[in-house]
Amino acid sequence: MRGEVPRRRDSDASRSTGSADAGRHASAVRADSQRDTDRPERHLADAPNDGRRDRDDPERDPIDPRLLAGVPRPHAALPDDTGRAYLTQPRDTRPPPDRDTKPDLTRPPEPPPDPKDRRPLADHADRLRVWVDRPAFQDGFDDIRPPDRYGDPLTLQDGTRVPRFNDRPTRDQTRDQTRQGRLGDCGVMATLGAVASHRPGDIAHRVAIEADGTYRVRLNEAKCTRDGARSTGRVIELSVTPELPVDNNAPGQPAFAKAEDGAAWSPVLEKAFAGVDKTWTASRRADWAESWAALCETDAADKDVKNPRSGPPPDGYVRLNQGSSAWERAEILTQLTGKESIVRSVPRRPDDLTRVLAKQLDDRKPVLIASRPERYKDERLPHGLQAAHAYEVVGVSAKEIALRNPWKEDHPELMSPAEFIANMEPRYTTLK
To answer: What is the Cα–Cα distance from 4 to 345, expressed in whole angstroms?
Structure first.
């Protein structure tokens, strides 16, 4: 059994707006070994069929269009997943490091931002280019100690680089190359795995390696819509350096997203998403500032929060560490696929739910959803669910629904549609 999985703070279960959990990862400890033996293991191989049926099946009933309507994004939307970082070691109880850490003088500093990186749309209509070197990674408000420094875990001892892909990207194999690490970005990692499974080609052409050793990551610029996101038609081109946050006692292992199965694309894309805020428009920055202000207000109102968030909105990895909302996951879906994404309500009738989700999977459209928050302190959710945690729907049948945990283990037990409705958030993210 692996070490503890810390959950953010004891008071996080009470921090929510409507059904959205506004907290960060909760601060209880992962279920002990006795709980693990009490709960039967379920492997993804045991999942029901993805829901795909013959496209010419005459029994496929038309779906009520009302079930496909979008859910408008609320003002200052708060995360409905709290990150749920996965640790392979016990929580470090040392005080968090000073946020104003000394610069690393062993490497030249990141070049100053190119003013052309964020010019008006009319000045460069085809693409944006930014440099992503060392995004902020030490969250001074987190009760989980951050990594120690930047290192180069993607360079092997013989001097060669971990390959982007260890083979031709395929559906199941590429999904298995994603694994969340010690960063509260379960929504990002669940989305990467979902796109890698349903649309491996969309992952394969996103990451290239340059002659100077940097990675060129291409994303679609996304514009947030009323109920999701759509592509602007422009490409975001990010030059991503290979250095990643590491711990001093494990410099050869990325502290955040893992280079699973000998493939580097997942941590490289995670770093690109940490740096994508460099490309944001003024309105997108204002949206994030409003959400951050709401999180700070929530912390300030909770007397049990020992280190309430405050100050300017963070960027980089620290921004990802705050968790994500269903609408932010829609934005990531569009950035990875170039397709319009949408947030929809979970149908409340089990038969409607399975037909809707099965059709999405049949059409190779990822489905992402967060589990509900705790209803009381230290509540243990049924079916092995982690509270306020983002999952991918990987299989649907009339009687069962299967979820994938971005930790790449501890996948929830199969749930009936009624149990799914009772224990998941009331909205999901997918492609139109």
So the answer is: 33
% of the chain residues with pLDDT over 90: 65
Tokens of 126: 């085809």
How far apart are alpha carbons 341 and 151 in whole angstroms? 35
Joined tokens for residue 149: 């420094």
What proportion of the chain, given as a percentage, has pLDDT over 70? Answer: 75
Looking at per-residue confidence, does 90 or 373 come out higher? 373
Contact 93, 242 (CB under 8 A): no
C-alpha closest to that of 132 among 20, 22, 214, 234? 214
pLDDT at 317: 97
pLDDT at 172: 61
421 Cβ neighbours under 8 A, 6+ residues apart: 346, 348, 350, 353
> Could you tell me the sign of the dihedral formed by the alpha carbons of 137, 138, 143, 145, in that order?
positive
Predicted TM-score (pTM) of this structure = 0.80
Residue 236 CB contacts under 8 Å (≥ 6 apart), including other chains: 127, 128, 130, 218, 219, 220, 221, 276, 279, 335
What single letter denotes the amino acid at residue 146?
A: P
Distance CA 340, CA 140 (A): 35
> Closest Cα to residue 153, out of 274, 241, 269?
241
Helix (H) or strand (E) holding 150: strand 149-151
* Cβ proximity of 179 and 407 under 8 Å: yes
258-304: pLDDT as tens digits:
999 899 999 999 999 999 999 999 999 999 999 999 999 999 998 88
Classify burial at 94, counting beta carbons within 10 Å of its beta carbon; exposed 0-12, middle 13-18, buried 19 or more. Answer: exposed
Task: Pick the closest to residue 304 from 8, 7, 11 (CA basis).
Answer: 11
Sequence-ordered list of residues with C-beta below 8 angstroms from that of 27, at least 6 positions apart, any chain: 6, 7, 8, 9, 10, 11, 12, 143
Least confident of 87-101, 119-133, 215-229: 87-101
Delimit the domains of the chain by residue range.
12-431
